[in-house]
Design goal:
alpha+beta; Glutathione S-transferase Yfyf (Class Pi), Chain A, domain 2; about 675 residues; Neurolysin/TOP_dom2; binds zinc ion; 4 domains; globular; EC 3.4.24.70; about 55% helix; Pept_M3A_M3B_dom; Neurolysin, domain 3; single chain; 27 helices; five-stranded mixed sheet
């Protein structure tokens, strides 16, 4: 049997080969189609049992078979695998579009919604039906026939363009590297970074027999140079390579995404208008917690207005420091991270490298699990012998208070070649009750790109990396601690985009609290927890340049939203012009003309964040405000933890996020906690 189709067990990664992909997808899709036709041709009125349950079964099987294909494309990329994945992605998209425009299915769901039994449904069941009807309408079900096929073509093209965009970013990132034999050029880099660059060199055949270091555009390498390299020319060179990735300004311009961006924005606009929306931003909000484009733009501009004066002051302070202490006359974008690190060291006596020895991976994981266990009344245990896709990957199970397994997750921590950059959580298996009664427990993929262990030294994380880990684990908890049993609203399924970051950003808070830090630090040599002076410095560092960081995020969010909300199909505004316009309004650091950040902005052009990047800030307001209840009642207070679990985590996508938030917090969200946590004093 095709191993991809063995969906009654955990994925057997060793058994998957590229030639399994196409046959598996063809089998799945033809069986699903046949089953759906059989379901809609039943004469009797549909019931939950006879209609929705079999559909859930199909969704579940598709996720379990197709999920690993996309996952491996991200963590173990090869040209062959990516080709097969892309080919099938097209078929899968086609299938979903077809299902989304299936009159028979639509009618059955309408009948369900009008049936007598609907009133007896649980909130979750009702939500499943309501979401289905909403999505049907968004999929163009009410469109005339010719418009429906137009819609289908648009969706396919968009899905392909997104995949192409992401692949261009990956290829362009890999296309550039710089081999350095003279150690002096890398002066300033700490040992851990030098070790990483040496390791990168040995991974490339061309340099295996030479002594030297390889600078690449993978994030850990890029960041190490930008933060530590004393050599200003090197910083500028690496900055330029990074900032021009996937653009016509790149050293190798064959992966230019400029045209893809134009096409994507154009097709998205057409798609939105086809469905009767004014623009794509309005379409995006149809499934979000936020109500109107004006509300979102107002929200972003309000935060920008409150933060920009402080951001300007922060930049002025940094500029003065760089002139006086570093001899940098005009602070350039490639100086900002470097000068900031030096300034931080001078004023805060704190650097990521100083903290690193306190955060050995083992201790950090122990702390993460202890906090999780204390707050949510569960336990976390590693399980050996489970099939994985790389030796680094580990597998853990989560048990409830009675010792029953409730969930599991894969943990893939380190950066390596052919693994997509960044960090993310993805669903491997969703919580769901089988029609025969068995409960399927959820499984998550947790993927990061941390600096791998060098030689026999255990890996130690920077505080940033620790925060990232907690963030992704928060997504994981949302997916894993759900109590929903209906596939479409279980865990993060059905959660609006602008609420999905609530649990993840919420979890980050523990990395800034003494109670949390005590659980997750043990110096690699002495075993000491993070001492008070470093903890104080860490606290101060949280507010360090926080307004500058705030306006940076607002720049991304506002660019994304305006690009979709103000799109003019007759005379599209050049993307670069809009980028500059937004920068004039919001940003305090002006990059050089060659900067092409939009060309590698995968979140919005290859991911699901189109006209939705604002969600990060939106959810930060929610998460900061939710955490402030722990500040009031005790950071590791299990009573509040369980309340959080039982409302926000348990309900998944079954209840409107505003309702859940109010159930937990006792009132509507307020912006104060976020500004306070960020150390921003509103003018
Ligand atoms: Zn996230």
């Amino acid at each position: 049997m095709n191993p991809l189709l063995q969906t009654d067990q955990l994925p057997n990664f060793e058994a998957f080969h590229v030639e399994h992909i196409v046959p598996a997808v063809e089998t799945l899709l033809s069986e699903n189609l046949a089953e759906i036709e059989a379901l809609v041709s039943i004469k009797e009125a549909p019931t939950w049992k006879s209609f929705v349950e079999p559909l859930e079964q199909l969704s579940n099987r598709l996720e379990r078979a197709w999920g690993p294909v996309g996952h491996l494309d991200a963590v173990k990329n090869s040209d062959e695998w990516h080709q097969a994945y892309s080919d099938c992605l097209e078929k899968i998209t086609d299938f979903y579009t077809q299902m989304g425009q299936h009159q028979g299915l639509f009618k059955k769901f309408q009948q369900i919604a009008e049936s007598a039994e609907f009133e007896q449904y649980s909130l979750a069941q009702k939500k499943v039906v309501e979401n289905a009807l909403r999505d049907f309408r968004l999929s163009g079900i009410d469109l005339p026939k010719d418009k429906q096929s137009e819609y289908k073509v648009l969706s396919q093209q968009l899905s392909q363009l997104g995949s192409q965009f992401g692949n261009n970013v990956l290829k362009s990132t890999q296309a550039w590297s710089k081999f350095i034999e003279n150690e002096e050029i890398l002066a300033g880099l700490p040992d851990s970074a030098m070790g990483l660059l040496a390791q990168l060199a040995t991974q490339k055949e061309a340099y295996q027999n030479k002594k030297g270091w390889l600078v690449t555009l993978d994030f850990p390498s890029y960041l190490a140079v930008m933060t530590h390299a004393d050599n200003r020319d090197l910083r500028e060179e690496v900055y330029q390579a990074f900032a021009t990735r996937a653009s016509e300004m790149a050293q190798d311009p064959q992966y230019d995404n400029s045209e893809n961006i134009e096409k994507i924005l154009k097709l998205r606009h057409e798609k939105a208008q086809l469905l009767g929306f004014e623009h794509y931003a309005e379409l995006s909000l149809a499934t979000k917690m936020a109500d109107t484009p004006e509300q979102v733009i107002g929200f972003l501009r309000d935060l920008a207005k409150k933060s920009k004066p402080q951001a300007e002051k922060e930049l002025a302070t940094l500029t003065a420091f760089a002139q006086k202490e570093l001899g940098i006359d005009t602070l350039q974008p490639w100086d900002v991270t470097y000068a900031s690190e030096k300034f931080k060291n001078a004023t805060l006596s704190l650097s990521q490298e100083k903290l690193r020895p306190y955060f050995p991976v083992t201790k950090v994981l122990e702390g993460l699990f202890t906090i999780t266990e204390t707050l949510f009344e569960v336990s976390v245990k590693e399980k050996q012998g489970v099939s994985v896709w790389h030796d680094d990957v580990r597998y853990f199970e989560i048990m409830d208070a009675a010792g029953q397994k409730v969930a599991a997750f894969y943990l893939d921590l380190y950066a390596r070649e052919n693994k997509r950059g960044g960090a993310w959580m993805d669903s491997a298996i969703s919580r769901w009750r089988h029609p025969e009664g068995a409960l399927q427990s959820p499984v998550a993929y947790l993927v990061c790109n941390f600096t791998p262990p060098i030689g026999d030294q255990p890996a130690c994380l920077t505080h940033d990396e620790v925060t990232t880990l907690f963030h992704e684990f928060g997504h994981g908890l949302h997916h894993m601690l759900t109590e929903m049993e209906n596939f479409d609203v279980s865990g993060i399924n059905g959660v609006p985009w602008d609420a999905v970051e609530l649990p993840s950003q919420f979890m980050e808070n523990f990395c800034w609290e003494r109670e949390g830090i005590d659980q997750m630090t043990a110096h690699i040599e002495t075993g000491d927890v993070l001492p008070d002076d470093l903890f104080e410095a860490l606290q101060q560092s949280r507010g360090f340049q926080s307004a500058m960081m705030m306006v940076r995020q607002l720049e991304f969010g506002l660019f994304d939203f305006l690009a979709h909300a103000t799109y003019n199909p007759i005379a599209p505004q050049p993307v670069l012009e809009l980028v500059n316009q937004v920068r004039q309004e919001v940003a305090v650091i002006m990059p050089p003309d060659y900067n092409r950040f939009a060309q590698s902005f995968s979140h919005i052009f290859a991911g699901g964040y189109a006209a939705g990047y604002f969600s990060y800030k939106w959810a930060e307001v929610l998460s900061a405000d939710a955490f402030s209840l722990f500040e009031e009642e005790g950071i590791l207070n299990p009573e509040i933890g369980v309340k959080f679990k039982n409302t926000i985590l348990a309900a998944g996508g079954s209840v409107h996020p505003m309702t859940l938030f109010k159930a937990f917090r006792g009132r509507e969200p307020e912006i104060d906690a976020l500004l306070r946590h960020s150390g921003i004093k509103a003018a």
